């Protein structure tokens, strides 16, 4: 069998650029957990810059948003903790240097190009405040996610969890999280706009800026969706929001203070005590218990996320290119290890398959490795430069990036899943339970009811085994209920003390 290098032909031999890119995908034979080299196993093309740039801009906004959410949540949950923008930027820089080198450049770029990059778990962002208020610990959460993810990938359980969570339940969960997250970001940018009134002495009232930014964002996002270029939404809308804010006179509110250099890369600084870093110290047993239901939900939501990205590749790649499609279980393995290592060195990201990279890569007809290497180098460069991080956490940029990159796609995906009346019933119960209790408990209960034909499709239970219908859903439900009661989440958040 001929190697990739032997089968490669110059682009001039093909009638179109598209034909050349198709041929590249068809002749690649990436090695799993072995060294893949540029020129011998893959090549760099200018198209690789598209997903690399989109992924870089997306992850800056996502990481900074995650860390700001942790900072706000922990500050509210603990009396001795006060964390702010500086903390969020430094933790984001840690996440963008060590994990980017180990798991983007080395893992997906050189040693397993079939494993998609380990990026950010967008659907979990609106839950971070709830996670912090529940008494969870970022490091405890990371360890549990990593362990559950490794177990799931070892037993090839990704597709099984997809089957256990019906489209109705998944659609309800995504819709609820999307709406809650979108409302939160809209309020944040509106408050930012109104706050400019008291700061801008010469400019007068500037509260209108938030409305203008949101209006133009809707127009641009709709246009990109119309021309099937929605993968450009994060960089395009974030840059547009930045431009409008600066042109509108809000530049005085943008503080560029982060200097060039490396963040603190000593794990002991971040986790060693309660007076520096995260100010939490190492996790204790109660932290693991509080983190348990959220870790289960995070890993459960991996499978549809991973499979969705792979399907997007299948839709855009030519026939006979199966060898370059992302492997779901390998991606899950890399995400699990990256979750534990990235947080252990001081980070706080909740990881998942990197959609803001893979979706534009699929559209550009490019495989994973070359773009991954470029993206990793870009991310590390931004983290070292520092000043781009100040721009990324500025409310108009951060909120718009989250709206178009996470929450609006979540709402759209959730609505698309709810096509039948039975799916709508399951989704409605899931949303209602999420409003009454919390999304974790709502997912567990709705999945149990749905798999036993009590809501949704009545014939669904007939298609499932006893283990899939009763054992696994009931076990997950019991674990979630027990964990929620132990940490007092219902007492603290929903005021039903008579039940406890």
From TrEMBL:
Pfam families reported in the protein's UniProt record: DUF3360
Keyword Transmembrane helix: yes
Assigned keywords, A-Z: Membrane, Transmembrane, Transmembrane helix
Regions that span the bilayer: 49-73, 94-112, 124-152, 164-186, 206-224, 231-252, 288-307, 368-386, 392-411, 423-449, 469-490
Stored InterPro entries: DUF3360 (IPR021794)
The UniProt record lists the keyword Membrane: yes
Protein name: DUF3360 family protein
Species in which this protein is naturally found: Thalassobellus suaedae
Lineage: Bacteria, Pseudomonadati, Bacteroidota, Flavobacteriia, Flavobacteriales
